[in-house]
């Protein structure tokens, strides 16, 4: 018997996608001896009849008892989503430059860019999980990140290494200025966890990366002292 292809078809109604409303989906076909055989068919395409989302982006819930009021959580979540969008953007800027760099400093920068990419990836996860702890919804997908990010969009083209470094330093500075502002706001509102995250992890890591990147555009002699 030919198998019905249900993977590419949109269900006609919500009831069709629900195992509760469609008992045949769970009981399966009858075997030759007349007994019912359980179906192993996954219930597919449920996204086409999705119910209301569990939580709307931009809202905060009070799920976890962490001693912070809703106003404080909302302010921190808003700031952290801005920080998250910019950190994702900086992370990806490092990978772009890791792939595209050329020139006498290729090996240095190729490796350094990837090291910083990995460190920014850790920050991305830490910031996103802090947003969830506070009862918010972390921004995640590239198009949403691009809308929210304040770091200027780079061209798709390959650029010279000093231009790459300049772009990275500009991005770090945007993040660091926000770090100071957001950490102060978190401190004022009593959100010590967010303040600590922004100062101890995000700010410190970005300052260190600024140092390592900046030294590559100091114009010093390569082989003979002038
Ligand atoms: Fe690589």
From TrEMBL:
Record CDD domains: DPS
Bias-annotated ranges (Low complexity): 9-32
Occurrences of domain Ferritin/DPS (ranges): 78-221
Superkingdom, natural source: Bacteria
Membrane-spanning parts: none
Positions of the UniProt region annotated as Disordered: 1-37
GO MF annotation, one: oxidoreductase activity, acting on metal ions
Family membership: Belongs to the Dps family.
Name assigned to this protein: DNA starvation/stationary phase protection protein
């Amino acid at each position: 018997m030919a198998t019905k292809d249900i993977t590419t078809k949109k269900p006609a109604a919500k009831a069709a996608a629900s195992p509760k409303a469609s008992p045949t989906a769970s009981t399966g076909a009858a075997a030759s001896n007349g007994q019912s055989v359980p179906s192993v068919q996954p219930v597919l395409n449920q996204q086409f009849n999705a119910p209301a989302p569990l939580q709307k982006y931009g809202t905060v819930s009070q799920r976890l008892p962490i001693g912070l009021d809703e106003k404080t959580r909302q302010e921190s979540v808003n700031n952290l989503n801005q920080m998250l969008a910019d950190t994702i953007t900086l992370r990806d800027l490092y990978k772009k430059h890791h792939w595209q760099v050329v020139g006498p400093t290729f090996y240095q920068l190729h490796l350094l860019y990837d090291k910083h990419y990995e460190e920014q990836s850790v920050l991305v996860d830490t910031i996103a999980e802090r947003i969830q702890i506070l009862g918010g919804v972390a921004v995640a997908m590239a198009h949403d990140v691009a809308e929210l990010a304040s770091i200027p969009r780079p061209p798709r083209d390959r650029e010279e290494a000093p231009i790459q470094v300049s772009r990275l330093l500009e991005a770090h500075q945007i993040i660091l200025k926000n770090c100071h502002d957001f950490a102060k706001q978190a401190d004022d509102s009593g959100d010590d966890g967010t303040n600590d995250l922004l100062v101890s992890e995000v700010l410190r890591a970005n300052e260190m990366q600024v140092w390592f990147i900046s030294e590559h555009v100091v114009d010093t002699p390569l082989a003979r002292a002038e």
